[in-house]
Amino acid sequence: MLRSIASLAALLLAAALPEAPAHAALACPSSTPAVDVTATAGAPRIDNTLTQPALQQLAGKMHHGGRALGLYRAQLEVQWRTSTAWRSSGAEACHWIDRVAIEITMLDRVIYIVRARLPGTCPYESLLAHERKHQAVDDAVIAEYRPLLERAAERAAAAVPAAPVPVDQGEAAEARLTAAVETALQSAVKAMQETRAARQAAVDTPGEYRRIRAACG
Fold first, then answer.
1. Phi and psi (nearest 5°) for 35?
2. Between the CA of residue 150 and those of 74, 127, 136, what are the distances in Å?
């Protein structure tokens, strides 16, 4: 009889105790990284030292119909660095993109004017004005694509599902995150390069060359 009363008391005590809480699922934050885009494109230096054959060799045989008197050259370079963050709970971890730093740089920016054209003269200044148009194209392309690169990185980061993964799969998860940004930025930079090439080619028209020849009478 005493055993029955003790068993009943144990049952009543068990019923009165709250259930142990289930292990809460790990909630991953949405990936909203800080995206920083910097652009460095200083004014080109002016080189007035080359002879026409030397300038033509630099420009290429077909440039300016084989008679190059001026030339604008610059190398567009875009680099980026993606930083990730993570947190874990138990056997699961969340990984997300924390920051993307993008650097646009215009390297080795030079305007060449053939040595026979002397600074301060009309022939020199008309050639310089033409090459400045090429410089302006690059400045405009950088200004246009700077926010486009930023949005491309933001969209790529947001498109990756925010879901917990086993702790031992952290490297693979981070590789997927950075690959998404890599693909998006590579596509954006390709479009930037193509836009730049098309707009630079549009500066060198027969009408523009006629204008340069007629500028000084």
1. -110, 120
2. 23, 36, 22
pLDDT, tens digit, 9 for 90 and up, residues 194-213: 999 999 999 999 899 888 88
Can you give the pTM of this predicted structure?
0.81
Closest CA to 96 of 81, 83, 85: 85
How far apart are the C-alpha atoms of 170 and 172, rounded to whole Å? 5
Distance in angstroms (rounded) separating the CA atoms of residues 19 and 95: 32
pLDDT for residue 140 is more than 70 = yes
Task: Provide φ and ψ at 43, rounded to 5°.
Answer: -65, 140
CB atoms under 10 Å from CB of 122, counted, come to 11
Cβ atoms of 94 and 87 within 8 Å: the answer is: yes
Q: Where are the domains of the chain?
A: 28-214
What is the DSSP track for the chain?
-HHHHHHHHHHHHHHHSPPPPPPPPPPPPP---EEEEEEE-PPPEEE----HHHHHHHH-TTGGGG--SEEEEEEEEEEEEEEEEEEEETTEEEEEEEEEEEEEEEEEEEEEE-TTSPTTSHHHHHHHHHHHHHHHHHHHHHHHHHHHHHHHHHHHHHHS----EEGGGHHHHHHHHHHHHHHHHHHHHHHHHHHHHHHHHHHS-HHHHHHHHHTT-
Pseudo-torsion of CA 55, 58, 64, 67, nearest 10°?
40
CA distance linking residue 81 with residue 73, whole number of Å: 27
Task: Give me 59's structure tokens.
Answer: 């420009």
Which amino acid would we find at residue 186?
Answer: Q
